[in-house]
Design goal:
By secondary structure, this protein is an all-beta fold. Helices cover about 0% and strands about 60% of the residues. The protein is elongated.
Length: about 120
Amino acid sequence: QVQLVESGGGLVQAGGSLTLSCVASGIIFKINAMGWYRQAPGKQRELVATISTGGTTNYAESVKGRFTISRDNAKNTVYLQMNSLKPEDTAVYYCHGVVRTTYRSYEDDYWGQGTQVTVSS
């Protein structure tokens, strides 16, 4: 089994910053893409940012220039540095990983339990 555990959420004023972390643990052969998604109340879950094993990144238009995704492959960890936060960034943020548990296995999708980010105006 693979577990993804997020940390770093909280309450921050508009214009402030937060850094989210997500550590993957368990039976892991290789982690391919990792990313962050978010879901606000009454809305669908949406992509925030993704990063490949080699470091290629992709961002939602709404966070470009404000958020930075990074990863430490040796630690099976992905980060999301969030600057210039806005009230509309308020959501539960979920970590996602595409993981192979053995060299023979196919890739599978894993999700963290989510961490709340609240931005006050």
